[in-house]
Every structure is written in C-alpha cells, then in structure tokens.
Write a structure and sequence with these properties.
By secondary structure, this protein is α+β, with helices and mostly antiparallel strands. The protein folds into three domains: 15-87, Uridine Diphospho-n-acetylenolpyruvylglucosamine Reductase, domain 2, CATH 3.30.43; 94-207 and 453-468, Uridine Diphospho-n-acetylenolpyruvylglucosamine Reductase, domain 3, CATH 3.30.465; 219-441, Vanillyl-alcohol Oxidase, Chain A, domain 3. It has 15 helices and 18 strands. It has helices spanning 25-28, 49-61, 109-118, 133-138, 146-149, 177-189, 232-244, 281-287, 294-297, 339-355, 357-360, 373-380, 410-424, 426-430, 454-467, and strands spanning 15-17, 42-45, 65-69, 83-87, 94-97, 100-104, 121-122, 158-162, 168-171, 195-202, 204-205, 219-228, 250-258, 269-277, 302-309, 326-334, 364-369, 396-404. It has a seven-stranded antiparallel beta sheet with strand order 15-12-14-13-17-18-16. Strands 5-6-10-8-9 form a five-stranded antiparallel beta sheet. 49% of the residues are buried.
C-alpha cells in the first residue's frame, strides 16, 4: 500500500468529492456489508472513458489504490483511506443488437434482466438483482444457467477496458499474447486488473426453452417445499436426490433459514428445498419428482409449484440485498455431498444462532446444485484464451451467509463458517478432491489460496506485473 497521502484539492475535469468523515462511511458509500469499510480518500464519478483515464492518472500521482465499483456488493473488497472509490454509475448503457448484448460497467443484474425480458430474450445474469454485472463476470459468472449454458466467462464476446496506464482496449477471446493473457485473467480473476467500461455477451430467445406452449413464454417453472427443522432428514433426501440426478435445464437449491415475523412461529428453523426448471412443466415434474413424493411431502410444512416471470425470478433474494450491518460470505465449491454433511451443518447453524442472538434471524446456509456437463464441455473448446475458473468439475456450491450487528460476533461467525466448509468438503477430501472457493464470494481477508491453483496465482501475478506494474488497482492477488 502506498504511504499516507494528504489530499486537499481535486481536479475539476471529472466529478469527484472527499467523503464527509464526520458521518459514518456507510452514509458516503453505502455497501452491502460494513465489514472492512471505512472512508476512502476520494470518490470519483467519471462520465466517459476520458474521465476514467484522468481519474486514474490523478490516483497514481497521489499514491492511491483504485477500486472500480458497479454494484457495491463484494464484501471481500476492503475500502480504506488510501482508496479512490471509482463509481461507475454513469455507465448504465444497455444495447441489444442481434444475438448479443452490451452492458455498461455500472449496470446491475436487475437492469439487464429487465432490458432482456422486454426483448423476449435472456443472457448470463446472477442470482441477485442488486449485484453489478461486471463484478459478476470478473469473478466467473456462476449462476442459474450453469446447466444450460455453462458459466458466463466462457461466453464473453468482448470486454472494453481502461488499463492502469490509461490505454483503452477492446479484448476478445481471439486476443493473443499479452492482451490474450489479460482477457483470460479478466474472465474469472478480473478484480484489480483494469476498469471494465462494458462487456458484450450472447443473448438467447426464451422461445428456445419451450417453457410454455403459448405466451407468455418467459415464465419459469419453480417448485418450493418448506420443511420444519425437525424434518432435516427429509429435506436432505429431497435435495440430494435432485443433486444426484441433475438435468441441464434444472437448478436445485436448499436454504437453512428462520421463519419470518409474519409466520405462525416466527424465528423457528426452516429448510427450503426448491427446483427451478427452464423448460416444459411436464419435463420439470419428471426431473423433480422427489418434490412430489408423498413420503417427502408428508413431512413438509408447505409446497408450492408455480410459473414465475423470468424478470421476477430473483425476487425471493431481495430481503438479503439490504445494505448495511455486518455481513460475511464464505463458500465451498464441492463435487460430492452427503446426508451426514447436511445434518451436521444444520446442527452447526442451529448452535450458531443460539450462541449469537444478533446473527440468529438473518444468517443462512445456502446449497445450490446443477448439471456440470456443459461447464466441462466449454472448457474443452479450442480458443486462444482460457478463463480462470478452476472448479468446473464441481457440481454444488455451499455458502454461509452470516448477518449480524455486533462486531464482537465476527469471530464466532468466522469460526462457524470454517466449520461448515470443512464439513461439506469432507467427502471431497476423502476422494482426493482439492478444496476450492468461488471467487466472487470469497471471505474478506481470506486469501486466494483456495480460489485459484498455485499455477494460476503465479500466472495472474505475471499478468498484474505486465498490465499494472505499479499496483494502481487494488487486487486480491497481491494486496
């Protein structure tokens, strides 16, 4: 990190301001989590590429690290007094042209989903409306369409970037030599390498999914089964059946959660098991048959099957998008799951809630499963560039999502997360499968040793040295 710098004046050729340090940092730069967040040195809000270049030059001259910001939902990125907080909110352009879409560096998932839906199409987007599209891509683009299309970074058509030296470049999968290396790194390990002004991705018509024989054709089949905590064995059986019998068009998830205040028993432990299917209802019911099995349903509190408009598919997550408080994510990309790991993790989650009252109501554990065949196939296609996404052979994602109000709870939250990840990885360890973490949801201060392989880390350091020799951009690889 550069030495302390005292700034007293700002250039007038781009919008920038000093944060009001008499107010909480969250009032200046509202982020999803307040952990690791203090006042930045300066907030810059460029309107075009020229102003980005000017802002980068100003940061370099004043010994600041630059963090470009789209959605402000990455809790592993620390914000502090030597940071230029580069707000990309002026870069909201969305353009659909033929079979592709170009999204600006400040667009959110929700904005892209809504724009696509109007045109009767979809593209690679995340499982939360609030996250930034560029951040989603830089970390790999793991989301709903893993089974159907693979991961997003295998399908990026181009990236428009500004480098640390102020060069404006358009990179593609056909880029070679140093530019090809940079494009590869941006696709999955892209935080801290450049400012991404825009990204171009393919779009697909809803009609190709045959979700409905008649309009509207953008409604997705969703089945949700809610279990009481006492039925953890049934919930585990249902989820593992979906996990062990994947279908490309299906995504399965399980969530340990507390009943909301409006429920008959507020705060009671619940387990949601759900399947989302991008296809016809008859096919969905066949692949998710376990959710209609009487021996499973008889232990549930409720069941619901519906068709949800694609633009509202992420609405269930909205309560978790609230900014502020102290939140931490920790995750494991795993190949094998067992009923024992689910039961043991559920017990850990219950105990964590009992021991930390301020974290009880809103801390959850999320499990997601998909068919990995398409992800693996994409990795075998011939191309000049190779995205940085090691866990393509993993079939499931398990994440602790701790949310609390007292800083003193952090130690217990970190310990809980570590125990959960160790438990869910146990079977992989037995089978000789190395532990891996999904880049975008890595822990604050957790390091990248479980995000990328040692060979990839060395390669990323070489890319960083080539394109950002003086470390202008904060990077999880070297900072």
């Amino acid at each position: 990190m550069a030495p302390e710098t005292s700034l007293t004046t700002l250039p007038s050729i781009f919008e920038a301001y000093f944060p009001n340090t008499s107010l909480p940092a969250q009032d200046t730069i509202p982020r999803w989590s307040e952990l690791g967040v203090s006042h930045p040195a300066v907030v810059a809000v460029p309107r075009n590429e020229e102003e980005i270049i000017t802002a980068l030059r100003f940061a370099a001259e004043n010994g600041l690290k630059v963090i470009p910001v789209g959605g402000a939902y990455s809790p592993f990125i620390p914000i502090g007094s030597q940071i230029m907080y580069l707000e990309m909110k002026r870069f909201k352009g969305i353009s659909i042209h033929g079979a592709s879409i170009t999204v600006g560096g400040g667009t959110t998932n929700k904005e892209v989903i809504e724009a696509c839906t109007v045109e009767g199409c979809y593209t690679f987007t995340g499982n939360s409306n609030a996250i930034g599209m560029i951040g989603f891509l830089l970390g790999g683009g793991l989301a709903t369409f893993n089974g159907l299309h693979g991961i997003a970074v295998d399908h990026i058509l181009s990236l428009r970037i500004i480098t640390a030296s102020g060069r404006a470049l358009t990179l593609t999968p056909a880029s070679t030599e140093a530019e090809g290396d940079l494009f590869s790194a941006l696709c999955g390990a892209g935080h801290g390498l450049a400012v991404v002004v825009s990204a171009t991705l393919p779009v697909y018509r809803f009609s190709r999914l045959h979700m409905s024989p008649s309009p509207p054709d953008d409604e997705v089949w969703v089945c949700k089964v809610m279990f009481p905590g006492s039925a953890v064995a049934s919930a585990a059986r249902a989820f593992l059946t979906l996990h062990d019998h994947p279908a490309p068009a299906m995504s399965a998830r399980m969530l340990f959660m507390r009943a909301p205040p409006s429920a008959p028993s507020p705060g009671s432990p619940m387990i949601l098991v759900a399947a989302t299917y991008f296809g016809a209802s008859a096919e969905a019911e066949k692949h998710a048959a376990v959710l209609f099995d009487e021996t499973v349903v008889s232990t549930a509190v409720s069941t619901n099957t519906s068709r949800v408009p694609f633009a509202r598919l992420n609405d269930d997550v909205e309560p978790m998008n609230t900014r502020g408080n102290l939140k931490q994510l920790a995750n494991a990309m795993v190949r094998s799951l067992t009923s024992a790991s689910i039961r043991d993790t559920f017990s850990m989650w219950l105990r964590f809630g009992e021991d930390t009252p301020d974290a009880r109501a809103r801390s959850v554990v999320l499990w997601v499963s998909w068919d990995p065949a398409k992800m693996l196939a994409d990795g075998l296609e011939a191309r000049h560039t190779r995205p940085f996404f090691p866990p393509k052979d993993r079939r499931a994602f398990v994440q602790t999502w701790t949310w609390y109000t007292a800083l003193a709870t952090r130690e217990a939250a970190d310990e809980f997360a570590s125990r959960v990840l160790s438990t869910v990885r146990a079977q992989d360890v037995v089978e000789g499968v190395a532990p891996l973490t999904f880049a975008n949801n890595q822990r604050l201060g957790g390091g990248v040793g479980e995000v990328y392989t040692l060979e990839e880390i060395e390669s990323l350091k070489r890319v960083k040295e080539t394109w950002d020799k003086h470390g202008l951009f904060w990077s999880p690889i070297v900072d």
